[in-house]
Each structure stands twice: as C-alpha cells, then as structure tokens.
C-alpha cells in the first residue's frame, strides 16, 4: 500500500514528502529543499529505505538539498521535466538570493515527461507535466490512493506564482484544468506549501480556478 508523510522544510515551510510502499518500505523523498538531517531522521523513525529523490520543479526551496542528498546517499534524482534545466543551473544563484545554504549542482539521473511513471515496490505513480509556475514542473499522481503531489501548481485557496522567469498564468490555469481536475474531485492533493485540500473543493471555491 502507498503511504506518505509530509515534513515542512526550509524557511519557506516547503512541504517535502516521504513516500513509500509499506510492503517493502522502499521510499522516495519528494522535493528535499533543505533540512536534510530532519528528513533523514524522519525516514529512519519510519523505518524507510530511502532509494530515490523525486523533484516537482527546481526552485531552491524544493530542490536545494537534492544534490547533497544524492551525493551523500548515492541516490538517483528523478525529475523534473527538462524545461527546468535553467532553474537547476541557477540553484547556486537562487541560494544566494534567498539566503539558503549553498546548493550543490546536479544533473537529474532521469528527466520526466508527461505520461511517464515512477515506482516504489508495487506502487506506481503517474507523472503529469504541468507548466505555468515553472516550464518543467511535474506532478506525481498516486491514483489508487487518490493522492497527488502537486508542488507549486495549486494550493488550498490559491495557485502558484507565475511572475518568475518562464512562468505563465495561462499555462498554469490550463495545467490545472486539463491535468489536475481529471484526477477526480475526491483526490487529495499535497501542495508545495500549506495544508492539503481536494480537487473538488478547489474546483468549487478557489478564487483563481473555481468553476473551471
């Protein structure tokens, strides 16, 4: 069975998520932006075998710790989409700009595209490319568990910023409507910041995309 545990990290309170197959305890961490000691402590407490790093996008608060974690534990970095290559290249500059510890450069072991899958034990998640917040943003959908890890595409009551380089409001709304809503109203999403919500609740009440 697919399980997850969310750990807010970095001064931006970014939701890093430990995800795993509870039959094998094979695990991945989604968006390890920082506070790696805390993430590793939580993984150990839960008895997880951390084997992969999954990235929704390459902003500093989501990807800042990925290079160090990959190097120290020998883990593959999976994602995001190649559209975020320039954000990966800019991680050292991002860390200086926002006062983060220096981010180690990295090259993803595997880029992701719309329609790809990622797996942990018997658990398989679908990958959807959802540009708008960044050009290479992806979302991980655990269909059987009715959970989606959406990074900074959608929040409870809000949507991702589109004023960064490569952002597009029109693309973001299109991503939400054509890629997220079809996952179903009952699907619970874990955003990059703030509390969980459901797609149905946001379809009804979100002031940016409600009624779409």
From TrEMBL:
Q: Which residues form the Metallo-beta-lactamase domain?
A: 13-193
Keywords linked to the UniProt accession: Hydrolase, Metal-binding, Zinc
Name the coenzymes or cofactors required.
Answer: Zn(2+)
Provide the residue span(s) of the region labelled Disordered: 192-212
What the entry lists under Pfam families is as follows: Lactamase_B
Gene Ontology molecular function: hydrolase activity; metal ion binding
Tell me the InterPro entries matching this sequence: MBL_Glyoxalase_II, Metallo-B-lactamas, RibonucZ/Hydroxyglut_hydro
Instruction: List, alphabetically, the PANTHER family matched.
Output: HYDROXYACYLGLUTATHIONE HYDROLASE GLOC
Annotated protein name in UniProt: Glyoxylase-like metal-dependent hydrolase (Beta-lactamase superfamily II)
Q: What is the lineage of its organism?
A: Bacteria, Pseudomonadati, Pseudomonadota, Betaproteobacteria, Burkholderiales
């Amino acid at each position: 069975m697919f399980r997850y545990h969310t750990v807010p990290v970095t001064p931006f309170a970014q939701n890093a998520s430990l995800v795993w197959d509870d039959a094998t305890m094979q695990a991945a961490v989604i968006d390890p932006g920082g506070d790696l000691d805390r993430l590793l402590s939580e993984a150990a407490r839960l008895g997880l075998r951390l084997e992969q790093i999954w990235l929704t996008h390459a902003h500093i608060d989501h990807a800042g710790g990925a290079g160090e974690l990959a190097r120290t534990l020998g883990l593959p970095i999976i994602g995001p989409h190649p559209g975020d290559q320039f954000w990966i290249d800019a991680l050292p500059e991002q860390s200086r700009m926002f006062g983060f510890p220096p981010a180690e450069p990295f090259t993803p072991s595997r880029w992701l595209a719309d329609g790809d899958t990622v797996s942990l034990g018997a658990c398989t998640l679908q990958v959807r490319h959802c540009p708008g917040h960044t050009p290479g943003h992806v979302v991980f959908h655990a269909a059987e568990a009715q959970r989606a890890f959406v990074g900074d595409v959608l929040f409870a009551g809000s949507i991702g910023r589109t004023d960064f380089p490569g952002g597009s409001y029109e693309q973001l709304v299109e991503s939400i409507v054509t890629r997220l809503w079809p996952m179903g109203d009952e699907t619970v999403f874990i955003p990059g910041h703030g509390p969980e919500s459901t797609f149905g609740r946001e379809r009804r009440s979100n002031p940016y995309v409600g009624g779409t």
